[in-house]
Amino acid sequence: MQRVAAGVEGDFLMRWPFPDERSKKKFLAAGFSRVTCLYFPLALNDRIHFACRLLTILFLIDDLLEDMSFEDGEAYNNQLMPVMAGEVQPNPDRAVEVMMWEMWEGMRQCDRDLSDKTLADTFIFMRAQTDRSRAAIRNLGQYLEYRERDVGKALLSALMCFSMGLRLTPEEYTSVRSLERNCAKQISVVNDICSWEKELAQSKSSQAEGSALCCAVRIVAEETCLGIPAAKRILWVMVREWSNRHDKMAALRESSDQGCSNAVKMYVKGLEYQMSGNEEWSLSTMRYIDLKPDQDERLDDVL
């Protein structure tokens, strides 16, 4: 993990236009390559660096979008997509375009089919980042449906398959869909609980649409009138229930009459690693824990 992270982070430190040394230190403390390795511990040695590069650049872009309007953010992502697809040559003066182009060209040379699937799901994630409907979400059901796209669950699983060289038939993908959606809920809510202080601080420091609070913590606090700390505790209980449900669903899938190939078993185990890896990183990354918890339980102060 350390060797892969050092290589990827060193490349970004040299090429990404960080504004100052503080930003570089903040980038290193976040540990984007670390979380990728935790997500995909079964990745092939010659592919894990691609996964680290992709998630790292998407995290960095997500931070940029926070200070943009939905319209500007959409334009930013739309300009990148044809470069990522190899349809347009990158602007040599824009590091994000050059790095995206090089990365996707390398992924296509490595495994065309799985990289194309990953690219399609990356585009779904990028469109969700600037989805104007997020501003109108008012209940947890709507939110979880939106977050399935915004958290990039399809992207994570496609990237998992690419990094592992894992191929499922269309029928096998359909058979694990319920496990996939359960995993998406668990990952989304863990991320929301742990990133609350970061998202709250960003919403207070910027009036841009990209900084608007859209978070399960806020929604549960609003719906229950119990305040932020209580909402977090409620959500942690839900997280544990989703984790337990995964174990039960996995056991049922493996013992089902339709059979369970080794590819399906590895896919289901990969979902488990995504959940545990995301939780370990979310509870330890300086991206989240470097901020003091919000002490005010009065809901009106954070809405």
Automatic annotation (TrEMBL):
Keyword Transcription regulation belongs to the record: no
Lineage top rank: taxon: Eukaryota
EC number: 4.2.3.-
Record-level GO BP terms: isoprenoid biosynthetic process
Top-tier EC class: lyase
Gene Ontology molecular function, alphabetical: metal ion binding; terpene synthase activity
InterPro entries per UniProt: Isoprenoid_synthase_dom_sf, Terpene_cyclase-like_2
Cofactor entry: Mg(2+)
UniProt keyword list: Lyase, Magnesium, Metal-binding
SUPFAM superfamilies per record: Terpenoid synthases (SSF48576)
Family statement: Belongs to the terpene synthase family.
PANTHER family per UniProt: BETA-PINACENE SYNTHASE-RELATED, TERPENE SYNTHASE
Protein's UniProt name: Terpene synthase
Provenance organism: Teratosphaeria nubilosa
High-level lineage: Eukaryota, Fungi, Dikarya, Ascomycota, Pezizomycotina
